[in-house]
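Obj: model holo form, ligand = adenosine-5'-triphosphate.
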Amino acid sequence: MDSRKVGILGGGQLGRMMVEAAHRLNIHTVVLDGEGAPAKQINALSDHVNGSFNDPEAIAELSNKVDVLTIEIEHVNADILEDLEKSSSTKVEIHPSPQTIKIIKDKYLQKKHLISHGIATADAESVESTPESLEAVGKKFGYPYMLKSRTDAYDGRGNFVVDDESKIKEALEFLHSRPLYAEKWAKFTKELAVMVVRSTDGTVHSYPTVETVQKNNICHLVYAPARVPDTIQLKAKLEAENAVKTFTGAGIFGVEMFLLEDGEIIVNEIAPRPHNSGHYTQDACVTSQFEAHLRSILGLPLPKGFSNLSTPSTNSIMLNILGGDEPNSELEICKRALETAGANVHLYGKSTRPGRKMGHVNIVAGSMAEAEARLERIMHGTPIESF
Ligand code: ATP
Ligand code: MG
Ligand code: MG
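Output (holo structure tokens):
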């Protein structure tokens, strides 16, 4: 479909699913990550680069092999990408823009950026790693509040809930030596998310509003569409689009949001790449998030309605498959999914470890009740009559 080669910084499951989508369009991809990374396992077309997506030399090596660079993770060396973009000797295009990655990868800079563009979000305050600083924030925000690492955060591993003043010492020990900021507690009734595609000309298109359920801070289930009134769905889509419009560069963005008790919707955080809450698009939408990402960074066409659910009655639930306590015990769930109509198993080629994201199952049905019944069977083996 396009003779330009795409280099991907990061070769985990998101990179792997990007490669999968690229293959169908005959788009050549080259991956930078450790040897045998999930994305490399399914791509024997290229001489991939072994190394870290933070290493300037490895990034330079990748950039010499490709025409367009993109990311599957924001924790990359954005300064090097910025240098590459400015350099007159390289002609590689980078999406999303290095400036976007730089802002988003530091969650406090991201918050300040959103606030300065009028996007509703929880109040945030930069803090020092001292009891005095955390006490001062407690006085300002009240308790509980959320203490977060500004960088390298994922699956809630950079977060600590400060319930009251007595927890401050533990919070500082837990997030020891990481750059911190504090967030006011968001009393949400549901967590929502919207995938938004930004084209090279800056126009944005959003996928449906979904509802995400986290367990131990890790995404557990995604309901598409979200089980909220249409007005709330529409409000979330508009807010997500407005948030993504404030960034530069093309590609897909995942916007995580909180639905508050009073119906207000605020942005939690944004990912400048495909996102776990968008995996359902692979089986439930006209175009998957991975293909939409590739098409948008390459400036390939996307038809009107590409981000819609496949049919007006399509309902979908995504279930994340985490490594079980016994090695490979999670495959029991996958086996039941294989026995279930309308369920698609996606595995990532990772070695099993308790709590590790190993894969996901996308359930697609004609109603949410039917999707929920299938989910119940897949998770617990409960027999159901309906098919
Ligand atoms: P991800 O894997 O999504 O990148 P992360 O490590 O960046 O996760 P966050 O998304 O900031 O972490 O937070 C993880 C979860 O913690 C959220 O999904 C939400 O359930 C809860 N949370 C985060 N911020 C707040 C807040 N200000 N108030 C209440 N709960 C919060
Ligand atoms: Mg995050
Ligand atoms: Mg998050």
